[in-house]
Specification:
Largest sheet: 22 strands, antiparallel, barrel
Number of strands: 52
Strand content: over 45%
Structural class: mainly beta
Distance between the termini: 11 Å
Radius of gyration: 29 Å
């Protein structure tokens, strides 16, 4: 068995080397560090076989090794963090030291063991290893937590882990996460490669969680090396096979609710100077996406993923690292009740809506690192990443019609290709930890869209006396005064064909930066400057100073910190060309100006300009004893040219939108109880306001808030409060048996499309649904279909909406209204009559508590003394009480989606 695996790993390494040099000796930087050193005895002689342990109790990261024949030890691929390193041997004392790994420059630590059992340490305080002095607020997550965390979304595990394990993140549907009040302003830094394109189920395929060793989630002011999308920076350190002299890995099988099955294998193998890690997994599910109904309709999907990392130590100064990934996903767009048995314009049942998507992701990122001397390391990198997105309309395009939701049929083939090179030089000496670097990225956008009208009422040539579409040869027919002849060839209800549109653009970005972390006694100072040069559909240059300072009160275990950053916020690349230039096309202008799903105006023809932001942070860290630490941060961000998205009908196709500005204040908290007699707890909480200001400057989509005004409005990912508590307990009678529990509370995102009553406030969205009948306040529900009322959980005077029957009644000639005082919902918080304000008191999704749990055993049986082989099993329950709740309702930016119903999964794995 070992022989065959060795041959397989040798082949994979050789294959990776060929790829790397075939790319023209292109290289990429690393974001992990190295700690090495020696262990000596009382006489100063080097000790062979001494045990060395390295750990961070907060993140849970831990590794161990023994000194070699030269009395030396080495830990490679360490995530940037602070660690406690200890050395010991039978009959000798234990020596402990604290090291801060914030650079690729290797660190050297010397241990000196005395005879006896006395423990010596360079740490003055017992709390020194739990509270960090770094001025940048962040959360650390290690594989030990990833392995046991009950995860909601198997096809977007990274997003789920970040949402559950770090503060400041509002959860949304389909793996979307809103970091600190922004939509998808996130950077995933993968071993030095910065990925800023959207990472969710309906945009791109993520790196599998099985490939991740640890992650650092930066909520604070971003260091100068990060740009483009910086509201949340997720630094990923992948797993490596270097130093794993025996083949190590696992084979996992699972099956659960909705026919969800998963098969995965990972394998690490290597030597002192080389290593390979490979992870392969496949997933299929009957509920791949979050749908517009709690019940599941037309929601199958599958995903196949392969990730490979190769490490080669070419010499004592040079090393090569390669990441390669291919992922394929295919999934249906979930239907609602109105997509079942669609009736065409002639009254024929054309079947169910059958819209589908396919995404293929390829990523290739080699790495070369050169150690210049004991104080300096150089990195040079290259990467290519390509997302190919296919969206397929129903075989019968007329089946794509959905009453009051989608009046068009759409298909799309879109590619987004990033190619870039980047490099840096790190220098560590004395109080300085400096880095100087730069990057150049070119993003190739190719968009191909086909769109046709499937609603006969949208552009009829003739109408009757009531304005209803009618054949022009029918008695009483008159010409439609709003008829648009430009659309006639593309009206499928009148024999037309879809309109084909093609767009392309190349976005070029150059960045240069310098930063230095200065440590002087109890003070730590981060200074940096970044220059961004954006050349896309528009051109912009931005100088961005970054600064942070912290002070460590060691006697009390307290760290105080403040920081500032100026950042450039670039437009989203997905459908950027269509959203920027589509309205200049006469056909698309007519379609978008007519469809309820979007609009075109004079500003929308203008290409997007990157925004710029000033953000301020102030916070603290506090250790209590040796097992508890709490961190808090206040955030204030002001952005000129702020971005979000608009959704096209019921499709997952979205368009970037730009507003004049946004103001985002809030706070984030994190607390951790490190392992205390088998119990560990992590708690995260945040409150972030996302206030946006009209006018809309560009993009295809309806403007929320009060059009034509500069009144602020809360965008749909604004949330007053959310929190996550994760508890894990290892049973005292069997340490491998554990119980993990999540409690997630969300106060609810903004739901601005909910009907309400307010006829006086100029900054209220209720004007269109507010009616006075006989002096009484009524809410007009006729703009919502019965199923939309059902999705919102609307109840009028005790009468609940159903998928086929609305809750309102006819009063005074109004077809469907409800007394404002009698309109309620258990899924949406509807403000009291006269109280709704788009800024101060908007409609919101109802608060919810969701509970997840996992019960597992990492070693069911015992195979000998060394435990070389282990069989593990666990049972996971997501939304264990089957909470019936919404993520959002008719959001301008993502539509309507329900939470995952209760999902049970059984898993068994073999570890070797």
């Amino acid at each position: 068995m070992r022989f065959s695996i060795s041959r397989l790993m040798a082949f994979l390494v050789a294959f990776g080397v060929v790829l790397a040099f075939a790319a023209g000796a292109a290289f990429a930087q690393s974001t992990s560090g190295v700690v090495g050193g020696t262990v000596t005895n009382p006489n100063g002689a080097l000790m062979v076989g001494a045990s060395v342990q390295l750990e961070n109790p907060v993140s849970g990261y831990a590794r161990s090794t023994t000194t070699d024949a030269a009395g030396q030890f080495r830990f490679n691929n360490l995530p940037f963090d602070q660690y406690t390193v200890s050395a010991t041997r039978n009959g000798f004392s234990t020596d402990k030291k604290q090291v801060q790994v914030y650079s690729t420059v290797p660190m050297s630590v010397a241990f000196h063991l005395e005879v006896g059992s006395v423990t010596s340490s360079v740490m003055v305080e017992a709390t020194a290893d739990t509270v960090e002095q770094d001025p940048t607020f962040h959360a650390d997550v290690d594989r030990s937590l990833i392995n046991h965390l009950p995860v909601e979304s198997p096809s977007s595990q990274l997003s789920s882990i970040v949402t559950l394990a770090s503060p400041g993140v509002a959860a949304d549907s389909n793996g979307l996460m809103h970091g600190l009040g922004d939509h998808a302003e996130n950077t995933f830094n993968l071993d030095g490669q910065q990925i800023t394109d959207q990472q969710s189920k309906v945009f791109s395929n993520q790196v599998p969680a099985s490939a991740v060793q640890s992650m650092e989630v930066i909520d604070g002011a971003p260091p100068a090396e990060y740009g483009d999308k910086t509201s949340l920076v997720v630094k990923l350190t992948t797993r490596s096979g270097q130093g794993v002299t025996d083949p190590t890995g696992s084979v996992t099988l699972s099956y659960g609710s909705f026919g969800t099955s998963n098969a995965a294998i990972d394998l690490a193998y290597g030597g002192a100077n080389w290593g390979n890690f490979i992870a392969i997994d496949g997933l299929q599910s009957g509920r791949f996406l979050d749908g517009p109904e709690f019940s599941v309709f037309h929601d199958k999907g599958n995903e196949e993923n392969i990730f490979d990392r190769v490490d080669l130590q070419l010499s004592h100064r040079d090393s090569l690292h390669l990441d390669a990934q291919y992922t394929h996903s295919w999934f249906q767009t979930p239907n609602d009740y109105e997509n079942i048995g669609v009736i065409d314009p002639n009254g024929n049942n054309v079947g169910n809506t059958d819209q589908r998507s396919k995404i293929g992701t390829i990523n290739f990122s080699p790495t070369f690192t050169h150690v210049i001397n004991n104080e300096a390391v150089a990195n040079l990198g290259f990467y290519v990443r390509r997302d190919a997105y296919n969206y397929y309309a129903s075989n019968n395009p007329l089946a794509d019609y959905a009453l009051d939701q989608q009046q068009e049929t759409v298909s799309q083939f879109r590619t987004l290709t990033n190619a870039g090179i980047h490099g840096d030089i790190s220098y560590v000496k004395g109080v300085n930890n400096a880095k100087l670097g730069g990057s150049y990225t070119q993003t190739f956008l190719r968009e191909n869209d086909n769109i046709g009208i499937v609603d006969p009422t949208l552009n009829p040539a003739c109408v009757d006396a009531s304005g209803n579409p009618i054949s022009c040869s029918s008695p009483g027919a008159t010409a439609n005064p709003n008829y648009n002849p430009i659309l006639a060839p593309y009206d499928l209800t009148a024999g037309g064909t879809p309109y084909a549109w093609h767009g392309r653009a190349d976005v070029k970005q150059l960045a240069l930066y310098g930063e230095d972390q200065i440590t002087a006694g109890n003070w730590m100072l981060n200074l940096g400057i970044r220059g961004d040069f954006y050349n896309g559909l528009t051109i912009q240059r931005e100088a961005e100073p970054r600064a942070g300072i912290s002070y460590n009160v060691k006697k009390t275990g307290t760290v105080l910190r403040v920081s500032y950053a100026r950042t450039q916020e670039t437009p989203f690349n997905e459908n950027l060309v269509l959203s920027s230039n589509g309205c200049a096309d006469p056909v698309l202008f007519s379609i978008f100006a007519t469809l309820s799903a979007g609009n075109c105006n004079a500003q929308a023809v203008t290409p997007f300009n990157p925004g710029f932001r000033n953000e301020f942070h102030a916070g603290f860290g506090q250790a209590l004893g040796g097992h508890f630490v709490i961190n808090g941060e206040y955030i204030w961000k002001y952005t000129h040219n702020a971005y979000d998205f608009s959704v096209l009908g019921t499709t997952p196709i979205t368009f970037p939108i730009e507003w004049a500005s946004s103001k985002i204040p809030g706070y984030a908290l994190s607390a951790a109880l490190t392992n205390l007699k088998g119990l560990s707890v992590r708690f995260n909480a945040s409150s972030v306001a996302a206030r946006f200001f009209n006018p809309q400057l560009g993009g295809v989509g309806a403007t929320p808030g009060t059009p034509g005004s500069n009144f602020p409005f809360r965008i749909d990912h604004d949330e007053k409060f959310n929190s996550t508590a994760h508890m894990e307990y290892a049973m005292p009678f069997k340490k491998s048996l554990y119980y993990a529990f999540n409690w997630r509370y969300d106060s609810g995102l903004v739901a601005g499309a909910s009907p309400c009553y307010n006829a006086t406030d100029p900054n209220s969205a209720c004007g269109g649904t507010s009616i006075l009948i006989g002096g009484q306040q009524y809410v007009d529900l006729s703009g919502l279909s019965p199923d939309q009322q059902f999705q919102a959980g609307l109840v009028c005077n005790g009468v609940k909406a159903t998928p086929t029957t609305g809750t309102g009644s006819s009063v005074g000639g109004n077809p469907e209204v409800c007394l404002a005082s009698q309109l309620t919902s258990r899924l949406i918080v509807i403000p009291a009559p006269g109280a709704e304000d788009d800024d101060k008191n908007p409609q919101r999704i109802a608060p919810r508590n969701v509970f997840d749990m996992a019960l597992g055993d990492d070693n069911l049986f015992h195979f000998g003394d060394h435990e070389r082989y282990k069989i593990a099993a666990r049972v996971t329950a997501i939304n264990m009480v089957n909470k019936y709740a919404l993520y959002n309702f008719l959001s301008t930016f993502s539509g309507t989606h329900y939470l995952t119903p209760r999902a049970l999964t059984a898993e068994i794995s073999f570890h070797f």
